Every structure is written in C-alpha cells, then in structure tokens.
Amino acid sequence: ARECGEDGCFQFYSEAMNRAVSEQVQLEAGILQGIRRGEFFLNYQPLFDREGKRLISIEALVRWRHPVLGLVGPDRFISIAEQNGAIVPLGELVMELAAGNCRHWREQGYRDLTVAVNVSARQLKDPRFVERVAAILQRTGLPPQALCCELTESVLMEHSNELTERIFRLKELGVRLAIDDFGTGYSSLIYLKHLPVDIIKIDRSFVRDLVEHDDDLAIVSAIVALAKSLNLRIVAEGVEKAAQHRLLRDLGCDLMQGYLFGKPMERDEFERFLTQEYVAASPDAAEAEPPE
Ligand code: C2E
Ligand code: MG
Ligand code: MG
Ligand code: MG
Q1: Pocket of ligand 1 (CB under 6 A)
Q2: Locate the EAL domain: which residues (predicted)?
Q3: CA of 122 to the centre of ligand 3 (A)
Q4: ipTM value for the complex
C-alpha cells in the first residue's frame, strides 16, 4: 500500500539489518562469556550397527543456550567461533564434556560405548592441540580408542607438514580419526593414502535421495568400494527412512546415523535411550573394530 513509501521500506530494511547485525555481534562477543557461564551443552546422537540393532557409538553435537537469543544451533556460531578463535576453548570444552560423559556411561556398564567429537581446522592449527587431547583423556580416564575425532576434508586439503605431523601425533595417542561429510570437500583422495584415517562418514546430501536417484546410488557405491579397499569403516549420515537403511546396509555401510535411529538428544533423554537401546557387545564384536 501506499503508506509504505521509500522511506518506510528503507526503515524496514534497516531495522531488519540492525537486528541481524546485532545478533551477529551478540553471538561473536558472547562465546567466551558463554563458556564461562556454562551456556554450552552437548546433545548426543546414536550411531547404530549395520542392521540397525545395536547402539555402537555416539556423536557429541554442541548447543548454546543463549541468555537473549534462546537455543542456538552450531550452524549459527561455529564459523564465528572459528573466525575469532573461540573455537579453541569451545572445542576443548566439548571434548572434555563428551569424554567425561562417555567414560561415565562406560562405567555404568555400557562398556564398549565410544564417542565422536567434531574438530575444526582452527583447533588443529593450535600447536598444543595434541597435548590438549592427551590431557583430556588423562583427566577423564577415557581410553583413547573410545574417542573419535571427526575432521572435515578441508582440514586435510592443507598440505602442510606441520598439520600432517600433528594428525599423526594425534593418531599415536590411540584416538580414531574420521572424515566427516565425506564427498562434499575437494575430494582429492590422496590424503586417504597418506593420513591415518579409520572412518569415513558419507555426507547426508548423498543419502537423502539415494533411493530415488541413481546418481547418488552410484556415488555412495563408489565411496563404499573405495573405503572397503582401504580397510576403512563407513558411516552413513542422515539416514531417515527404512528404505535408505536397507540400501545402505546392502551396499555394506558399517554404521548408521540419522533420525531413523535417533535424533540428537540432551543428556537425560539420551540416558533413557541408552537404557532401552544398548545391547552389550557380543564376543565377536572385536571383529567389527577398525584395523589397528
Ligand atoms: P555434522 O558433524 O555433520 O553433524 C551431523 C548433523 O546432522 C547434526 O546437525 C545432526 O543433528 C544432523 N543430523 C543427524 N541426523 C540427521 C538426519 O537424519 N536428518 C537430518 N536432516 N539431519 C541430521 P547439528 O547438530 O545442527 O550440527 C551441524 C554441524 O555443526 C555438524 O555437522 C558439525 O559440522 C558442526 N558441529 C556440531 N557440534 C560441533 C562441535 O562441537 N565442534 C565443531 N567444530 N563443530 C560442531
Ligand atoms: Mg560430525
Ligand atoms: Mg557430518
Ligand atoms: Mg554433515
């Protein structure tokens, strides 16, 4: 209508922009303070075995209970934290909480449970990263093999000796390494040959239309074949439908993650889930372990 003249519209845009800018500023300035005030917490999402019967592992996913903005997901603050460096203390907090809780649950009787945490490129650039991980394992008492660090392909594309050496030292601690969102990065597969990777997580963008699109099926089959020939474990992300699960199982994926098996859950909810879903590993479970 006519009342919305040029000035009015300008006013509208400018308010919207102000809001966006101020939200950005609040997120940017608030991370370190939020860490001190205990505003960050973890959700846990289960990873099931191939048949979808047994809970094998969990992924820790960070959330922020912001005093003004409410519940904020990682897509809104991780890249900010990477830019301003706050990801270093935040990532350390995430790893400490995840490792501590996993150790706790293992002691409760879920003795084979393992946990994965996401590690940003920026964290690996910190020369003390490996020390920090070692200290966390020491403090929490979690065995290194029970911790998996999920790295994205962008990390591995940086051909620096320093970074490569750091990844090897991380591996020497005994922790597992996974490539997250596999297939979305630059996908020069060379790093698979040169780096001590244990697990590949197929990005959910390939899983989404897997049943309907032959292209996605071809891509996933190729990734699985590659991973098998390199002796890597394969996780399928974003499994939402039974038909996707059946196909991924038949293709040979080792682990399943997605809403079909469980959404990311807060600690209490996850503990109830664990009680219901966890089936103690059978003696032949050792065979399912990735090669040393
Ligand atoms: P990611 O590591 O690939 O984690 C999987 C994301 O997919 C999670 O989103 C999870 O909630 C979502 N997801 C899982 N199953 C399904 C499904 O069946 N359908 C759909 N549509 N989505 C599913 P979330 O928790 O929002 O995390 C987003 C991303 O933020 C993560 O992707 C990870 O890259 C990053 N992130 C989360 N926590 C951390 C952290 O502690 N540190 C770092 N550096 N990054 C983190
Ligand atoms: Mg991940
Ligand atoms: Mg992923
Ligand atoms: Mg993803």
Answers
A1: 45, 61-62, 73-75, 78, 91, 94, 118, 120, 150, 180-181, 204, 238-240, 257-259, 264
A2: 24-278
A3: 17
A4: 0.97
